[in-house]
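Action item from last meeting closed. Structure (165 res):
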């Protein structure tokens, strides 16, 4: 599987870009999956459901299956979260995995940057960033794209991972 990341600081437009890229790349006939890193304590379950009760009883993994999808919830010790390679191993094979977050992982990334946030840019200190999607030209030595030019960004990503654009 090919892996390409979308990174940036808070409110930079990462999720919106990933959403648009999934659509733009999927309609070209490529299969796409995503992994999103969050710093929030995520729980898809609520107290009182049967699956919640399974976890509370000590199950390390609980699969909740319906006619339309399934969800696997895996418990691990705080501070022992899986690294990106372990998460990628859990996915079914696809043409491309878009990874949101995981700033320090080794895969190539495009940085989202919005001037109005006042956030610093990551690319000067992160050598895995190979391009920038921005609302303001930065004059960097990296390829820069308008944050809303999804098609050009999709072309760049597909070319970067050796899938034809």
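Sequence:
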């Amino acid at each position: 599987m090919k892996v390409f990341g979308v990174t940036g600081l808070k409110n930079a437009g990462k999720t919106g870009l990933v959403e648009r890229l999934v659509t733009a790349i999927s309609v070209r006939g490529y299969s796409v999956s995503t992994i999103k890193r969050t710093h929030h304590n995520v729980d898809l379950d609520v107290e009182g459901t049967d699956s919640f009760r399974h976890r509370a009883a000590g199950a390390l993994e609980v699969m909740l299956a319906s006619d339309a999808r399934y969800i696997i919830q895996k418990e691990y010790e705080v501070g022992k979260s899986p690294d990106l390679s372990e998460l990628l191993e859990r996915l079914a094979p696809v043409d491309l995995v878009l990874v949101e977050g995981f700033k320090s992982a080794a895969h190539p990334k495009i940085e989202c940057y919005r001037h109005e946030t006042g956030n610093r840019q990551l690319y000067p200190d992160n050598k895995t960033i190979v391009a920038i999607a921005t609302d303001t030209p930065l004059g960097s030595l990296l390829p820069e794209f308008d944050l809303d030019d999804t098609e050009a960004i999709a072309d760049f990503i597909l070319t970067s991972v050796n899938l034809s654009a």
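Note appended to the action item: The helical segments are 14-26, 50-56, 84-90, 150-160.
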